[in-house]
Amino acid sequence: GQPDNALLEHQKAVQFDPQSGMYHAALAGAYRKLGREDEAAKHLRIAGRLIKKEGPYNYACYESICGNIEGALAWLKKSLRSSSDRGLRNWAAIDPDFIWIRDDPRFGVLVKDSGVGNRKRHFSL
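RESULT FIELD:
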């Protein structure tokens, strides 16, 4: 509920670790929420170069923030299948990075085992 504060925190994260694709992707998401598409696109380009090495879950987040529903769902599915961490499924169900795909029924199917995936939980930046 505090998008300006969220933006500042994501900017700090990028300054702390400019080689983190996920930090750039999260910053892009914050810019998108504020309607600042040019800045979002800049950080998505940077994230795209860095994030593939960060694993399938982070890549799913990146694809979601990019608005690529098919890619986000495919990478999330891969991530959840390869992880034995039940907490990852629970986190995916409420992860703010998936706000862009949360209303897709396939997302609900992927996270349904968490018990929270079917709830309408939208986080705002």
